Amino acid sequence: MNNLKLNTETISAKFGIRQLTCLMLIAVAMLSGCQSNGVKGGDAMSAAEIDRDVSTALTTLYQQSPSFKQLAAKAKGVLVFPNVLKAGFIGGAQYGKGAMRKQGRTVGYYNLVAGSYGLQAGVQTFDYVLFFMNDAALAHLNSSKGFEVGVGPSIVVLDEGMARNITTTTARDDVYAVVFGQKGLMAGLGLQGSKITRIKP
Q1: What pLDDT shows up at residue 1?
Q2: Which of 53, 77, 139, 163 has the fewest CB atoms within 10 Å, measured from its CB?
Q3: Helix axes 67-74, 47-64, angle to 10 degrees
Q4: Between these two residues, 166 and 11, which has the higher pLDDT value?
Q5: How far is residue 39 from each of residues 88, 113, 135, 197, measured CA to CA in Å?
Q6: CB–CB of 90/119 below 8 Å?
Q7: DSSP symbol at 146
Q8: Residue 54 near residue 33 (C-beta atoms within 8 A)
Q9: Kindly report the CA angle at 38 between 37 and 44, in degrees rounded to 5?
Q10: Backbone angles phi, psi at 70, to 5 degrees
């Protein structure tokens, strides 16, 4: 329990009490049967702040795994969620904001919200990148009122070795995802069921 407290305090110093409080409110709402498509107010981030964090996350990913930079060059769009915050105690939630990049330029902003049951107690942060490989997958993201991971376009979670072996001819899935930079107590990130919605920061 002391480790959980220390870890929460460490992450609170980086993200602020408002984000943690906001995340826990989302978890409570989902546990009571409510649905949330986004959060406004205390956790607000400017477009410049999101862009800065997105650039930092991509730089880190490409330095650690250059194969993903090559995959990005083949993608129609790269959706980046830096510093996604995930917390749980019996039930839990995760929340983050990110941006879509096309040819290195931001073309839209999105949030990521998910709730689930049975999570172990803890708080964790991670970076999450989605590589959209065709126009149809991108169109589905922008035409839906909430793009749900696991529903619609096929999504494959990659590691560096798998990314290295993807070529223009073998990239047959709609979307490829990578999770990295995990910090915290929780194991297993469970992307299934996450909902992505376009926002105006």
Answers
A1: 41
A2: 139
A3: 120
A4: 166
A5: 18, 9, 28, 11
A6: yes
A7: S
A8: no
A9: 175
A10: -70, -40
| C-alpha span between 126 and 158 (Å, rounded) | 15
**Claim: this prediction has a pTM higher than 0.90:** no
High-pLDDT (> 90) share of the chain, %: 29
- Give 13-29 pLDDT, tens digit per residue: 554 545 554 555 554 44
- Report which residue type is found at 69: K
> Would you say 190 and 116 are in contact if contact means Cβ atoms under 8 Å apart?
yes
Task: Show the tokens assigned to 156.
Answer: 């494959």
CB contact set of 162 (below 8 Å; sequence gap of 6+): 156
> Does 164 score more than 70 pLDDT?
no
- Give the Cα separation of 9 and 14 in Å (integer): 9
Q: How far does CA 176 lie from the centroid of its chain?
A: 13
Strands 147-148 and 105-132: unpaired
Integer Cα distance of 80 and 96 in angstroms: 10
Question: At 47, which amino acid appears?
Answer: A
| Nearest alpha carbon to residue 175 among 139, 138, 128, 146 | 138
Query: Would you put residue 16 in left (φ > 0), alpha (ψ -120 to 50) or beta?
Result: left
Q: In the predicted model, is pLDDT for residue 200 greater than 70?
A: yes
Q: Please give the pLDDT value at position 166.
A: 65
Q: Give all strands (DSSP E) within 49-142, no chain letters.
A: 77-102, 105-132
